[in-house]
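1st attempt posting a full record on here, be nice pls
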Amino acid sequence: MQVCVLNGSPKGEKSITLQYVRFLELAYPAHTFVTCHISKKIAVIEKNREEWDFVCNVIRDADLVLWATPVYVQHVPSQYKRFIELLFERDAGALFAGKYAASISTSVHFFDQKVHEYLQGISEDLGMNWAGSFSAGMNDLMEEKSQLQLAAFGDDILSASCKRRPVLQVYPPVPRMTRSYVPGSLTGPVDTEGKRVLILHDASEDSSLGKMVRQMEGAFSGEVTTCNLDKIGMKGGCLGCVQCAFENQCMYTDGFSSFWKEQVEPADIIVFAGTIRDRYISARWKEFFDRSFFLGHIPRYTGKQVILLLEGPLAQVPGLRENLSSQFSGSNLVEIVTDEPEDSGLIDALIGSAAERAVQYAVAGVSRPPMFPSVAGRIVLRDAVWGDLRPIFRADHRYFKSHGLYDFPQYQYRKRISRFFFSLFTSLPPVQKRMKPAMKDHMIQGFARVFSESRVLKRLSGNKAV
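the predicted structure (as tokens):
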């Protein structure tokens, strides 16, 4: 049986993910593995017909297609995303239809599940049968346990293809939207009160997204900077070279880093505007996100207010909402506005409301508390930077240390001591006997002090405005 390996790493043969594929190749010598270095050669694949035809022929001859990719900023690398866009632009679905597909990734397990959800959805869109996925830590293969897990995965997906195992499609096709947003008049622009607004987009002038961008511009009366991603100086996607890890200096000499420091960092409110394409937004947007990795794992948007403007059927791609909602580390996501409503007036109202609320949050200098994906993700990165990544990601380590992000529970010595003696005290049967009937009272006891002493509550209670 022939396996087509679509390598998503820009590093080609030196990809960590490809080492896992190499293990499978050695473990199953009866099968032929043919690797196409998609991300490394994406520029040639897109422009050179012979290179494109070569990849197509490898896919056509394969029995099983293995998507092999690192996780770059919660998704596949931008070069890989561009290849997937090309598959749909050039109507290449017939190459994949009826074949079996699987995915393998390497990462620090930061939103790796989103990569596999995406690749399964894309595979099903291409008419393929999904055989399974394998998500590994970058160095897991050094351990025998992981080798056994990987071998079991290989046996499973090869068996699925050989035996034509029945599978159930998980992700329904994403419907194409036909209606177009027609902007109306806004009730009035919102005074930015000195806060800087940055609108980033990849919209064409006459698209629904372009109209939404212009409407969002008009929703603010203060300083607003609008930039198309094609104009900010990106000459290529992240190469995964990690040369930036020591001092947060990207190896590219294009204008992206200076744009980031001059426009993104000073902004108080950032509007990200994109069009849903192939279960994500564009490869150009992914390039922007990937290139921001010159900052390593440092939170990029701390204290900023974020608005998302999306053209396309977001409600039909629930995984995308979760992914994008967690994309902007340290920020406050004010609102996601799409062009899905049939009533353009409602879209206008949503844009105006989002602008108003973003200014309110920015002036107050507060954000909503994070939920599980953000909290769990922060802990994953904290432990990774402290552990295996620290020798290389020196800039990350300095930032995490100086900003108190190494908040391991074992460092909280006073709390540990008090909890020890309190646990010792509550282990006594007479104490437990008295405590159990009053547990609900104990749980809310401390809040009475908040109600009587809170300065915030006293200030707000004197405000009669609604």
